[in-house]
Amino acid sequence: MFGPEGPTLRELAVQALSSVEHGYDLLAPKFDHTPFRTSDRVLDATARALAPLGPFADGLDLCCGTGAGTEMLAGLCRHSVTGVDFSAGMLDAARHRPRPAGGPGIAWVRGDARALPFTAAFDLVVSFGAFGHFLPRELPGLFTQVHSVLRPGGRFVFPVPAPPRPTRRDFWLLSGFDAVMRVRNALWRPPFVMYYRVFRLGTVTRELTRAGFTVELGVLPGFGRRADGSPRARLVVARKADARQAAGQPAAGDVNS
């Protein structure tokens, strides 16, 4: 699961007994050598799906971690890219990540996704692998924050993998992990919020709509379909209304499911 450059079992145990913020500060130097980093396969597929919806001027990577998604975003935006995260350690690792020459400048900002320090400054907001750190009751506030930092017509985009079936080993591994975390958080303070099976697509689309978005579900290319024909990975594209939509006219360039 972890290569020789990844964290040791002791380091993971210390992280798990810390707060979310301090835990990621500790893990940051070795984070890119763990399975928790968003895979290049997911990032590349998201970039391919987003390219026809552009061009984009300014982008925000929400809960950017060490910046893998931010680099992807830099290939889609012409003017500026911002990565925001509440872990100083993760941001420090992001700043030291090697970057290819060219492309827009990247600003790294320490901030909480539930209280973003921006005005309506972005055309595109993306996020990868961070939603397990938010309890379902926090989603309305989180999505309202994202809506507030988007310009009219801007999009909030993130991939969502299909949940594993109960007949699959992954289902029981993820369910077991969530159960252990619930016990840990009941017995230990500070809590470490990280659950794999609380971010459910039906709840997410409902709360995005309540926050003022128009939501479309695309298929993330390259991941194929399950035996029942459903996609193995979806791309959620939540759009903030622009002047055309406010006037009752259809908006151009939406993603097809």
Automatic annotation (TrEMBL):
The keyword Methyltransferase applies. The keyword Methyltransferase applies. Residues 60-154 form the Methyltransferase domain. One of its GO terms (biological process) is methylation. Keywords: Methyltransferase, S-adenosyl-L-methionine, Transferase. GO terms for molecular function: methyltransferase activity. Coiled coil: none annotated. This is Class I SAM-dependent methyltransferase.
